[in-house]
Structures are given as C-alpha cells and as structure tokens.
UniProtKB/TrEMBL annotation:
Name this polypeptide is given: ABC transporter ATP-binding protein
Entry-linked CDD domains: ABC_Mj1267_LivG_branched (cd03219)
GO molecular function: ATP binding
Keyword Disulfide bond: no
Key words of the record: ATP-binding, Nucleotide-binding, Transport
ABC transporter domain span: 4-251
Ligase as UniProt keyword: no
Length: 251
C-alpha cells in the first residue's frame, strides 16, 4: 500500500488551473521526485497534499486515512510534514529556538504537566536540545545554533527548515526545492543526509530543479506540466522520455 496517494486533485486560481486533475503516489520507504517546468503546479500540489490550500476537488490518502478534510497541523501530527520553497523561519529567534518550537506540542504546553512534573519536563527539554543539536550538525548548522535565524543565508534557512521538520520524526517529509540557493558542497552533504534518513525509515517526496539531485536520490519521479501528470518512471526512464524533454524546452 502507498504511504501517500492523491488522485483527481484540481485547484484553480481565477482563470488559471494550477493543478488540473493530478495524481501522485509515494511508496513507503521511497525517495520520490516531483519535477516539471516553472509554474507547472508543483508547489501548489504540495499545498494541496498538506492542505495549506484546499483543493477544489480530489482525494488524498495518507497512511491509509483520508486527510483532505484535516487541518494542516493535524496532518503534521499524523506524520506528514513539509518545507517551503521560500523557507519560513523565525528571524528573531535563535536557530536552536526555531528547532525547539517544532517540538513544542510535546513539551511544557500543559500547565498541570508543568506544575506536576518539572523534572520530567526538564529531562525532555534536554533530550530535545540534544536531538536538535544532532540534526543541526547533520545539516552543517551546529556552529550557528545560538545565532539569530535572521543571520542565516537563504540556503542555510532552507537547511534549518529541513532539520526542523525532522524534529517531529515524521513518516513522510515533503521538501520543496531543498537544494535551491545551497552551495554545491552542502548539496552533496544534504543528499547524503537524505539517504541516511531514508535508510533509517523516513520517506521523502522532493520537488527539485537540480536534476543531479533528482537523478541520484530518487527511486521514482513524477513529472508535472501545466498542472497535469506528464510522466512517471525511474530517473533514467524520465531522462529518456521525449515528452518530458519537449515540456522543458517549451518553457
Ligand atoms: N496563490 C496563488 N494565486 C494565484 N495564482 C497562483 C497562486 N499560487 C500559484 N499560482 C499560479 O499557479 C501556477 C502554478 O504555480 P506553482 O507555484 O505551483 O508552480 P511550480 O511548479 O511550483 O513552479 P516553480 O518551479 O517556479 O516553483 C502558476 O501559474 C502560478 O502563477
Ligand atoms: Mg514551486
């Protein structure tokens, strides 16, 4: 059974059909790619899958449950998290605080819990800090942990967002252009990390324009053009598909 399966998704903005009867599936344990020319509807499809935008039509099943009626934070609690094409970090908080906020729902939010179990809460906070530090190390940001997030470059913010998404130990993580604005050395490091996290059991759906990243990471690649499914296959099938080539050249 697929971990994520969406079908018949439609979303119009005014006269533009940004997503036009699209489908996508993600197998558990896979690294699945989503590619397509600029404006193809990839980010909109992510927004529909995670219900940041409500679809006009369509159905999304995650981990065996229909989720298209759920609010996006509920979807995140069920284990599907996403990052944004333009990273959404809180500039006036430290990098570490950004990380800990992701885990907020797990600690210190309940008054009685705070009153009754201060020792447990402290212990949990320490564990979360350690977990945050390990994740920051893995994306090359440990040395920035106590700087303001506002001091990070665009690429570093993307890395922080990815690390933050992993704080909640999701089943599926949707990455919108993780390599955009990131320097080549770090891109290689990120790809290695994604593969390690994948071996540890995490499933990925990745939008990316960097074809080297897509080709080296993905088991399966979906191609979207003008809001519609154009092709799906292995990276080499997609690379050799003349229709895909035409869609890219036509942009
Ligand atoms: N909130 C919005 N309001 C109006 N139009 C929108 C909105 N979001 C997206 N669109 C339009 O929908 C279409 C698909 O956009 P989308 O951002 O999903 O494409 P994309 O495949 O992610 O492109 P890119 O590779 O450039 O990020 C575009 O024509 C875009 O202008
Ligand atoms: Mg996009």
């Amino acid at each position: 059974m697929d971990l994520l399966a969406a079908s018949g998704l439609v979303k119009s903005f005014g006269g533009i059909k940004a997503v036009d009867n699209a489908e996508i599936t993600v197998a558990p344990g896979s690294i699945t790619g989503l590619i397509g020319p600029n404006g193809a509807g990839k980010t909109t499809l992510f927004n529909l899958l995670s219900n940041f935008i409500r679809p006009d039509k369509g159905r999304v099943i995650f981990d065996g449950e229909p989720i298209q009626e759920l609010q996006s934070h509920k979807i995140a609690q069920q284990g599907m998290v996403r990052t944004f094409q333009v990273a959404r970090t809180l500039s006036r908080l430290s990098v570490m605080e950004n990380m800990l906020l992701a885990a907020q729902s797990q600690i210190g939010e309940n008054f009685w819990q705070v009153q009754l179990q201060p020792y447990l809460i402290k212990k949990q906070e320490r564990q979360l800090q350690q977990q945050a530090m390990l994740l920051l190390e893995s994306v090359g940001l440990a040395h920035m942990a106590y700087e303001y997030a506002g001091a990070l470059s665009g690429g570093q913010r993307k890395l922080l967002e990815m690390a933050r998404a992993l704080m909640t130990k999701p089943k599926l993580i949707l990455l919108d252009e993780p390599a955009a604005g990131v320097n080549p050395t770090l891109i290689n490091q990120i790809c290695d990390r994604i593969q390690t996290w994948n071996r540890e059991g995490m499933t990925f759906l990745i939008i990316e324009h960097n074809m080297d990243v897509i080709m080296s990471l993905c088991d399966r690649v979906w191609v979207l053009a003008e809001g519609r499914n154009l092709a799906v296959g292995t990276p080499s099938e997609i690379q050799n598909n003349p229709e895909v080539l035409t869609a890219y050249l036509g942009q």
